[in-house]
Amino acid sequence: MGRVTTTLKAIVVSGVFPNLSSVAPCLDPILTGGSVIPRTSPDISRHLLHWGFWHAAKYIYKVEMWDVRFPMNSQGIRPRLRIVGVVILAAWIGISALFGLLKPIKNGCTMTYMYPTYIPISVTDDATSGRYGLYLYHEGWRKIDFKEHLSKLSGVPVLFIPGNAGSYKQVRSVAAESDRAFQGGPFERTFYQEASLFPGGGADTDSANYEFPTRYSNRLDWFAVDLEGEHSAMDGRILEEHTDYVVYAIHRILDQYKESHDTREREGAAASSNLPHNVILVGHSMGGFVARAAAVHPCLRKSAVQTILTLSSPHQSPPLALQPSLGHYFAQVNREWKKGYEVQTSPGGSYVSDPLLSGVVVVSISGGYNDYQVRSKLESLDGIVPSSHGFMISSTSMKNVWLSMEHQAILWCNQLVVQVSHTLLSLVDSKSGQSFSDRQTRLWILTRMLQSALAQSFNGMTPMKVSHELPMLASKGSESQISSTCVLDWRDDALDRDLYIQTSTVTILAMDGRRRWLDTELLGSNGKNHFIFVTNLAPCSGVRLHLWPEKEKSNSNQPVCERVVEVTSKMVLIPAGPAPKQSEPGSQTEQAPPSAVLMLGPEDMQGFRFLTISVAPREAVSGKPPVAVSMAVGQFFNPKEGAMEVSSQSMLLSTYWQKEIFLMEDHPLAYNLSFAMSLGLLPITLSLKTAGCGINTFGLPDGETGDLDKDKLCKLRCFPPVALAWDSASGLHVFPNLYSETIVIDSSPALRSSQSSEKTTVMLLVDPHCSYTASVHVSASAMSTRYVLIYGPQIVGFSFVVILYALMRQANQWDHKLSVPPLLSAVDYNLEFPSPFLLLAAFTLLGSLFYPFLVGQPIPPLTSFTVVSLICYLLANAIICVLVIFSKLVFQASALVHTTVKSRCQALERNYSLAFLRWFSILASSFVCLKAIRILKLNTTIVMTLVAVTLVSFVHPALGLFVLLASHALSCHNSMCCIMTASRRKESVDQKNEADRKTRHPSNRQEPLSGELSEKSFVETQADIFNHRHGLLILHLLAALMFVPSLAAWFQRIGTGQSFPWFGDSALCVGVIFHGILNARPESSILRSFPSLAGHQLRPQHIYLFAGFHCVLSGLDLAPYKVFYAIAALGYISLTLKISQLNRNDLRFRTKSRIHRN
Questions:
Q1: Cα 1014 vs. chain centroid, distance in angstroms?
Q2: CA-CA distance, 308 to 943, in Å (whole number)?
Q3: Does the pLDDT value for residue 753 go beyond 50?
Q4: What is the average pLDDT value for the chain, to the nearest integer?
Q5: What sequence ranges are listed for the domain GPI inositol-deacylase PGAP1-like alpha/beta (predicted)?
Q6: Which residues pair with 117 in a beta bridge?
Q7: Degrees, nearest 5: CA angle 352-357-358
């Protein structure tokens, strides 16, 4: 405590706390534990409260922990308030995100089992070099003869392409289920509403030309490419090589079918099917992008690829957009796809042929919010594939799936692979035995098999439209026409007596065989002109709904029964939770969850007077046993009464205080919650607790009226709630059996490319007989996890912005004849509010929207975009601060060790008894004196440049950047060692002067003055070199880290035949090296010789400012690899200026060196 007391008193006396200087003598009672402040100093408490005790503790921590023994400006490593604030913010978000990422994910998938056998396909092309392989999958536990099996190939070829570090054996799940699906036959037909090709739900013109088969006509032959588990998501060159091999594999598969066909002909066997002319491609992760890249490959045979299905595959940009070649290859392939849908014309403009990709259909299946590796925004096909040729669908809204799954789970999730298997088998034409050649037919089948009508019916929570063709169809008069939507005919005596409902809510708890009549005019009055109906009864076989006109008001001469419209087939299937079990009829303990929903608006019921709900009798109409527990609830309601908007302020406050919503009994069955901010950024935990269910418990025996009994009664009467979350970007997400669930959607709001509203709408289907208490709570861990996943690339891009702005600050200080500030001080200065923070951050972000505004492109919501981007900028500052502090500590520790060891060795050398050390020193000196070594020492920069450029151009870019980093680190280390050595020399001089002062020799008292100034000047010069080189080190360290994933992939391929790096990567990294070499010292930075433009001298700080703005745009576009363009441009500008300076023999900037300033 004594040292702390002395330290704080020294701080006060030295002027660190100028407001407390006058009260320094009064600090002793406080620092020594005194509890009473002297009355003679009444301002002490006020000053202490003003600065805060934590502020004093911060400076104590600075002096005690960051104290250095040389007079270098220590503000660069002082933990200021702004620095501490951003670091704490980053630590809180990082720890919360890590907790959310490590938290186990609830997975509703069931496992898939198989008996796999992999048959190798012989490779005859020398271009493959034997690195990759091709296999045919066979399902079965019996051993087979490979050659005989290949000779019988006659199915539909499907090629599976694994993703990053994937295996060809990952094909086993979907291939095994395809074999079972072929043997078991198609799904049983249902009568739910089907998805439409048209967003408006119009009639499908091609549906009349195709009917789903009752049995599949041909099996699927699954092939898989073995890509050796290479990391294709980390290196663009690997991705190109995978594409080349996939093209070869497609040709090899088609040739194998030709060989098998010829073999059967030679053996006299009859051909069982036609030869395939194209291969269906199924790719997982990066394999999906490889499939698209193969479709536009110049060596691919014409029409060899017609159908592509991707699973959790990025299409817009790579998930790790760090390497320039990777981003360039994505952009190149996407450009080719956009050109592929353009009509081919001659130079004169005349028609030549149809678009090259006119027959290709692409379907992208995303894993939803549980897929942490690839976000749905990257899996979108917008701007690449038109809606007439493909679509993206999330597994959360996929028919018969309704689950979000992890990146790898999408390969084995049984619900999904079964649906995919039946979908691909449905593409087989029964006439040809191969997939349909007509693109529209294939797209229609894919839409019907994968998409649910729920996603189209509830886009924005609007009622589904009753097709206008239905009244025309029903008005033709025949009874078969009326019941054609269901096909199943009920017996005339199947229905018991009719019931007439007088309330706006109707409830059905049993299959009683009755028809219920609802007067639409009477029950739909008072604004309740919308009708919703939920049930677990199957349409047609369990329940049927009809609209009846009023006889007196009809102008038609046809009987009323012939003008009835059946709307049963407008019921939409929704996922249902597990149904309650019962040992015998009537023994259930809770209500069944709904499995279908129907919504009708006033325009749908216009012209009709009655709505009837007909329930089948207990006996099975379709020949199947009825459901164990029956339920159906219908209601006329007013949508405005069941709507509530949750503001962004309420959502943020709910992180600490839950927001509660109380739903009274007789509330609307469909309750809409509109959240002002997207749940993709602020996931909520929505809890529903049953408060009452309208059951009077009075008169029951004692002990039977407790809460437990009430809960049992409410569960028996009220069906489990269902939540439907809809977002314009990611689609529909369904949460059945909702009592407490974290609702999150996989959208990416507040981005520069966001073009839609950020609101998320959640529709709650809740039983109107019961009252509920709903609580909304924003999960901090889920929010942090989503933030890191969505805006991680933006933070990476902004990290370059921070360091470039810091270099700008250093250059500006040097131009004003001041010392180069430490890097941390430059970062801290740029965070000062309002200036320069607003100028460098806020105004730059708003300026990035100027060009889209001028060209008329949609711009994102300004408030959320600015706030989110500023948080990303602050997090980037925190990352840079941590790197700076850590690296400076490393340099200080290494310099301390170096100088200490050197001084000890020099002391030992003076001891003549240690002859070995003297001999070793002489030997080392003779080695250093060699001519070759002397040449290398005199030309260190040239040698380092040649080595770095050679490694970048012929081995790997990261290795060349590491050489540049070693040069920066060595320079920083030498400067730090010089500073420490000078500091120790100054301490020894000070001690000698102090000794001389005590012996009272005045003549020696003034001698150290000039030496002190000389040492001070030298230390300042070394500090300038260190601070400048330290900034370049951090900048180029970030650039080198961008290539670390690619380097890991490069090491994996050692010994398997390496290829030269991509030319673009090498060229950009060479520019980075030139920037580091030609601007290594502050006094000789070549950027200072930039010529004047329009009479204005362009200084280095201006160049760094422009480079920083380019990096801002790169980060906002989620393409951090584009920062290399700016840094490389700095390097090539420096090289051009250097060559120009050498040609003019310009020595101007050699005289500007301020090495010794006295």
A1: 56
A2: 51
A3: yes
A4: 80
A5: 153-426
A6: 138
A7: 75
Contact 789, 375 (CB under 8 A): yes
Alpha-carbon gap, residue 1126 to 1038, rounded angstroms: 14
Q: How far apart, in Å, are the Cα atoms of 1153 and each of 1082, 1148, 1157?
A: 9, 10, 10
Pairwise CA distance, residues 1061 & 325, whole Å: 9
Question: Is-contact 503 570, C-beta < 8 A?
Answer: no
CB atoms within 10 A of CB 195: 25
Q: H or E element: which one contains 794?
A: helix 780-815
Q: What angle do CA 273, 278, 282 make, to 5 degrees?
A: 110
Quote the pLDDT of residue 756. Answer: 59
What SS3 class is residue 828?
helix
Calculate mean pLDDT across residues 926-954.
76
Angle, helix 1008-1042 to helix 957-998, in steps of 10 degrees: 160
Q: What confidence score (pLDDT) does residue 441 get? A: 92
Angstrom distance (rounded) from CA 42 to CA 22: 12
| Cβ(113)–Cβ(176) below 8 Å | yes
Neighbours of 873 (CB within 10 A): 26
Sign, CA dihedral 510-511-512-515, equals positive
User: Measured in whole angstroms, how far is the alpha carbon of residue 986 from the centre of its chain?
Assistant: 55
- Between residues 55 and 960, the one the model is more confident about: 960
Report residue 718 as tokens: 């009220």
Q: Among 486, 482, 525, 481, which Cα is nearest to 503's?
A: 525
Helix, strand, coil percent content, the chain, rounded in steps of 5: 50, 15, 40
Portion of the chain with pLDDT greater than 90, in percent: 41
- Domain ranges for the chain: 116-187+214-341+355-451, 498-552+561-576+591-617+629-692+709-779, 785-988+1018-1053+1060-1150
The tens digit of pLDDT for each residue in 696-728 reads 544 445 455 444 566 677 777 788 899 988 877
Determine the Cα–Cα distance for residues 300 and 125; give it in Å rounded to an integer.
15
- Cis peptide preceding 836, ω within 30 of 0: yes
Q: End-to-end CA distance of the chain, in Å?
A: 40
Q: How far is CA 747 from the centre of its chain?
A: 9
Range 116-187+214-341+355-451 has CATH code 3.40.50.1820: yes
The counts of H helices and E strands in the chain are 34, 31
Residues in the chain: 1158
Per residue in 267-314, pLDDT tens?
876 666 689 999 999 999 999 999 999 999 999 999 999 999 999 999
626 C-beta neighbours (distance < 10 Å), count: 20
The token pair that represents 512 in the structure block: 């009683």
Reading the block at residue 542, the tokens are: 């369990």
Q: Return contacts of 108-112, CB within 8 angstroms, 24+ apart.
A: 108/403, 108/415, 109/403, 109/405, 109/409, 109/412, 109/413, 109/414, 109/415, 109/416, 110/413, 110/414, 110/415, 111/412, 111/414, 112/173, 112/176, 112/177, 112/412, 112/413, 112/414, 112/417
Give the residue among 440, 332, 333, 341 at the shortest CA–CA distance from 385. Answer: 341
Decide: 435 and 427 in contact? Cβ < 8 Å: yes
Two tokens, residue 752: 């520069």
Peptide bond into 625 cis (omega under 30): no
The answer to whether residue 45 scores a pLDDT higher than 80 is: no
**H-helix or E-strand spanning residue 534:** strand 530-535
> What average pLDDT does range 738-758 have in this prediction?
79
Tokens 């999906």 appear where? 288
**How many Cα atoms are found within 13 Å in the side-chain-facing hemisphere of 386?**
15
Q: Which one-letter DSSP state was computed for residue 302?
A: T
- Decide if pLDDT at 64 tops 90: no
- DSSP E strand boundaries for 657-804: 659-663, 670-675, 684-692, 722-727, 731-735, 740-743, 760-765, 771-778
